[in-house]
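Lab manual, section 2.4: Encoding a predicted structure.

Procedure: take the sequence of the chain (122 residues), apply the prediction step described in section 2.3, and record the output as structure tokens. A sample record is shown.
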Amino acid sequence: MSEHSKVKDSGPKRLLSSECDVGGRVFQVDLLILLNGCFASISEGKVARMGAITVAIKSGERFTSSALIPESKGAIFAGMVGEMVAGKLHGIAVVSLYLREELDTSSMKTLINEVRNLLNRD
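Recorded output:
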């Protein structure tokens, strides 16, 4: 067995998904957990969609996040989710956020808790 296939077979890759109702708005939350990070998708509606893209990484005790495809409705929220995921997994987080309208603080807290609950599964 080659070294490449050993790494490929031994990683913790798994897809975690949930549907979350937040104040009458439905969100699809999907996390693809990889050995060194995560792809996270938060999408408003019954069908998941790509949205604004933010990348976050934890380096030492500091977090860095950057919007690759900016989103006017949730840029700060996407960065918060990315930094939380990167910190929890000690790696890189790529977050896709698709929103139809702005999120209020209560909705943000609920969605962050949903992502946290998915990460804590197992």
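Check your result against the sample. Helices lie at 3-10, 75-89, 105-119.
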